[in-house]
């Protein structure tokens, strides 16, 4: 079953580790079979100062946000959801003709400006993951959510 839903992800930097890359490709392709997914990759900023990196990457991310986007920032201090609740978040945003736009920060995290702009902060766990692993977990959970929405047995297997 194919949904007309659109999902967007904005993230920082290439996936350099081949295992994370392969896992992300697996779930990205599965998601593509169910709905439209667009990804925007921001270049990693090189600077000596952490706050320069966070703020510049933050500005570059904000430039890619559109009016229809419902901004969901991934942050370990955000709200925790179970997979059914997470699928409802995605379903509700999409049925309101908005686009869930997931943002994953770079190695040093997210700027305060993005945190202020976000419509929702979600946590995948109270533990901190590298951004590559956070991306893989996010994709698996988006795929899981979509299977819940279309009634595919993946979540119950
Ligand atoms: C290495 S982490 C950045 C850690 C940084 N110290 C901070 O305070 O945000 C890189 C990115 O992965 C995502 N991330 C890592 N762990 C996460 C978690 N448990 N829940 C949600 N997002 C997470 C966030 O978007 C974060 O900005």
Automatic annotation (TrEMBL):
SUPFAM superfamilies: alpha/beta knot (SSF75217). S-adenosyl-L-methionine binds at residues 74, 105, 124-129. It catalyses: pseudouridine(1915) in 23S rRNA + S-adenosyl-L-methionine = N(3)-methylpseudouridine(1915) in 23S rRNA + S-adenosyl-L-homocysteine + H(+). Its EC number is 2.1.1.177. The gene is rlmH. Transmembrane segments: none annotated. It comes from the Bacteria. The keyword S-adenosyl-L-methionine applies. GO terms for cellular component: cytoplasm. Specifically methylates the pseudouridine at position 1915 (m3Psi1915) in 23S rRNA. It is an enzyme of class 2 (transferase). It is found in: Cytoplasm. InterPro entries: Alpha/beta_knot_MTases, RlmH-like, tRNA_m1G_MTases_N. This is Ribosomal RNA large subunit methyltransferase H. It holds the Pfam family SPOUT_MTase. Coiled coil: none annotated.
